[in-house]
Every structure is written in structure tokens, then in C-alpha cells.
Write a structure and sequence with these properties.
Blueprint: H1 2-24, H2 27-49, H3 53-66, H4 71-83, H5 87-97, H6 105-118, H7 121-129, H8 138-150, H9 154-166, H10 172-185, H11 188-201, H12 206-218, H13 231-247, H14 251-264, H15 270-280
Helix pairs in contact: 3-4, 4-5, 4-6, 5-6, 6-7, 6-8, 7-8, 8-9, 8-10, 10-11, 10-12, 11-12, 12-13, 13-14, 14-15
């Protein structure tokens, strides 16, 4: 008896669904289509954030081939190529996107980013000039700062860096870039301060730690800064400090730092050993 009731319920459900489809003139099909659009949107976001960059490139290349008129898929391909460090290919894609009637200021900034990564500074500057000054984003000012640095327009660079820092909650990398700019100008005190600030935002940023050691070494301060480091990082920083001391002409100090780097490293530190052997020979 229970089986008969269950069968009747299933039959009623099927009839009801059929009736809904008939009365709704395809509403059921539209719902399925909407679900597919949501699923695709989620997949696109995954590909642009957590997926392997090269896998994302393949995904969006396939999508663009199948639907070449979809601007969102072209953008996805351009962003994925940038994530995969394939700047030249990304530049080609973004150059097409910015010519589209529906191109946005975001697109022009992405295009400038691809050009900066290729070292096409003049073209990148021209791309950013096409963005109105009222369009203020972290990425726009980060790129403006890098370009101003390249042109040795220091006041503009400092202004752009400062603006970029104020437009993000994670300014570690841009502070590191700003610090390196100061380092290249010979402003070692300010460079060290900026590197230290970058590390407070991102303690894992080894580039900033290494740059901080360079800034100290340039002033012949051969002590490591008080920052959070692993044993391997400490050995690497001692190696950097040793090479900096040697470059400054402080040979014995440099040799002592290289010895300490070799002793500190938990494994065989080939780079430091090679540097010490070269120095001794």
C-alpha cells in the first residue's frame, strides 16, 4: 500500500511540473538557463582568483573561441594572461578590448599594466593618459607611480605612491616599491623606514626584508634589523649584508658575515659558500 501511495505522489509531481511548464510558457527552461548563468559566473570568478593561472588561460581561450563577441570572456583571458606572467600576450588582448565601444576605464588600466610589465613605458603612460583624473583607484595610482619613477619624476612618483597607499588595506608591495625608489635615489634612511612599514603589513614579504638590509648596508650599518625572519631568511639576509659590505670595501666584515650566513643556514648554502670562495681566491 505504501508503494502505491509513493507511486501516486511521484505521478502527481510529474503532472504538476508538466502543468507548470505548460502554463508558464517555458518558465522552467528559463530558470534552468538562469542557473547555468550563475554557475558560469561563479566558475569565471574561481578561474580569475584561485585557479592555476595557466589553467585559467586555457579555460578563457576556449570560451573566447566559442563566443568571440563576449567582452567578459576576453577580459577574463586578459586578466588570466597577466596572472600567468604572459604580459606580451595579455597586451595584445587588452589592446583589442580598449578599442571596443563598451571599453571601461578599468580596461584601460589593465592595458597599461600589461604594457608596464613589458617595459613599454611610453605606451603605458599614453594608456593611463586616456583615463580621466577623476577615476581614482589603487591600481591606477600604483602604475602612475612606477611610470613616474622610470621618468625620474620624483615628486610625482612620491605623490602617486602616497595616494596608492591610501587606497588599499594591503599596501605592503607598493610600500616596498616606494622604498626601492628612495633607495635608488640614495635616500637610505627613508628607504629603510618604508621597507620596515611594508613588513608590518606583510611579514612574509622577503623582498622588503632584503631591500631593508641593502639600505642599512649602504650606510655601512652591518647589523640585521629586528624583524621577524625564519632561519633560512636570516642566512639569506646575512649573505646579502656580506656582499654589501664587500661592495663597500669592508672585506673582512663581509667575510665574517658570509661565514655567519653559512653557519646559520640549516642546509648547504651554496650561494654563500661560492661567494666566500671567490673572495678568498
Amino acid at each position: 500500500m505504501r508503494h502505491i501511495k509513493t507511486g501516486m505522489l511521484c505521478l502527481i509531481s510529474v503532472v504538476a511540473l508538466a502543468a507548470c511548464d505548460k502554463d508558464g510558457k517555458g518558465e522552467y527552461s528559463k530558470t534552468l538557463k538562469n542557473v547555468n548563468v550563475i554557475d558560469e559566473s561563479n566558475l569565471n570568478n574561481i578561474m580569475l582568483t584561485v585557479a592555476d593561472p595557466n589553467e585559467a588561460v586555457v579555460y578563457f581561450q576556449k570560451a573566447v573561441t566559442e563566443e568571440p563577441d563576449r567582452l567578459d570572456m576576453q577580459r577574463g583571458l586578459g586578466q588570466s594572461l597577466l596572472r600567468a606572467k604572459r604580459a606580451t600576450e595579455a597586451g595584445v588582448i587588452w589592446s583589442k578590448i580598449v578599442k571596443h565601444p563598451d571599453a571601461t576605464n578599468d580596461d584601460r588600466v589593465f592595458y597599461a599594466n600589461a604594457l608596464v610589465r613589458q617595459g613599454e613605458w611610453k605606451k603605458a603612460e599614453k594608456a593611463l593618459d586616456a583615463v580621466p583624473p577623476t577615476y581614482e583607484t589603487f591600481e591606477r595610482y600604483r602604475l602612475e607611480a612606477i611610470i613616474a619613477d622610470t621618468n625620474k619624476e620624483w615628486k610625482k612618483a612620491d605623490s602617486f605612491y602616497e595616494t596608492a597607499v591610501g587606497l588599499t588595506t594591503t599596501p605592503g608591495t607598493v610600500l616596498n616599491n616606494w622604498g626601492f625608489s628612495k633607495l635608488s635615489r640614495g635616500d637610505y634612511d627613508e628607504a629603510e623606514r618604508l621597507f620596515g612599514e611594508a613588513i608590518t603589513y606583510d611579514p612574509s614579504l622577503f623582498t622588503a626584508k632584503n631591500n631593508m638590509v641593502l639600505a642599512r648596508g649602504a650606510r655601512k650599518n652591518y647589523t640585521l634589523p629586528i624583524i621577524q625572519v625564519t632561519q633560512v631568511e636570516r642566512a639569506q639576509l646575512l649573505h646579502t649584508m656580506g656582499l654589501t659590505a664587500i661592495k663597500q670595501g669592508d672585506i673582512e666584515t663581509g667575510k665574517a658575515l658570509l661565514d655567519e650566513a653559512i653557519e646559520t643556514h640549516p642546509q648547504h648554502f651554496e650561494a654563500a659558500i661560492r661567494s666566500l670562495r671567490t673572495l678568498e681566491s
